[in-house]
């Protein structure tokens, strides 16, 4: 029997209709939190995930289609969460996109979108959710970042810039609320085994003339010394810990979960 340490609390998880975000939302629901999902995808599939959370864990689960490019949508999502479920106790900023290109060829609209979704949306969720957290005297803000918040890779200028920004935003907000019962941290995974990553393997196999195992080891996991993917469950478990009372002394930090990538 799982100890429901977050019984009755409210967790808003952006980018949670699949992959890491969905895994995080489900683990908080498993531990008793009502959850709000957000993200893109097939409406029927999203509804299936939402309904499954309610059925599996006996909590309330809502879906909000807020466009993370639009500050007004983000603010409305936070307000509607507060009105429909209650003040947000746990905010997980997970929404993100990627685009790869040499900087001189990088499309300006792609740069703008990556900065907006991967970094600026975090600012908007945090600034809107903080007032209620301050009123209640408790809050957990967890930004799902990346190893690229600490190191760089070529051709990912927008993504690396955004994730470095997330690390700075995390530190700054943590200092501002350090005496108010609110912690702010970031999780920085390396390559995580998600359906999105898995779907890229066949094309890479064909393009490079490699086997599946060669693609995993020599392409995707080239930077990770363990040569093992981080799992969604591992990221979710770390988020769960950071939201717990046991982690109240951890704030303003970016925690690496990258198989040794950033140790090099």
Describe the structure.
The mean pLDDT is 96. This protein is α/β, with parallel strands linked by helices and 264 residues long. It folds into two domains: 10-191 and 229-258, Rossmann fold (3-Layer(aba) Sandwich), CATH 3.40.50.720; 192-228, no CATH class. The N and C termini lie far apart (40 Å). It has helices at residues 19-30, 43-57, 71-84, 108-136, 157-176, 195-208, 212-220, 232-242, and strands at 10-13, 34-38, 61-64, 90-93, 139-144, 182-189, 192-193, 230-231, 254-257. Helix 3 (71-84) packs parallel to helix 4. The protein is globular, with a radius of gyration of 18 Å. The chain contains eight helices and nine strands.
The first-to-last residue Cα distance is 40 Å
Number of domains: 2
Helix fraction? 40-55%
Q: Tally of extended strands?
A: 9
Order of helices and strands: EHEHEHEHEHEEHHEHE
Low-confidence stretches: none
Multimerization state:
single chain
Principal-axis shape equals: globular
Write a short abstract of this structure.
One of its GO terms (molecular function) is 3-hydroxybutyrate dehydrogenase activity. The chain contains eight helices and nine strands. It is of the alpha/beta class and 264 residues long.
Keywords:
SDR_fam, 3-OHbutyrate_DH, 3-hydroxybutyrate dehydrogenase, 9 strands, 3-hydroxybutyrate dehydrogenase activity, 264 residues, alpha/beta, Sc_DH/Rdtase_CS, Rossmann fold
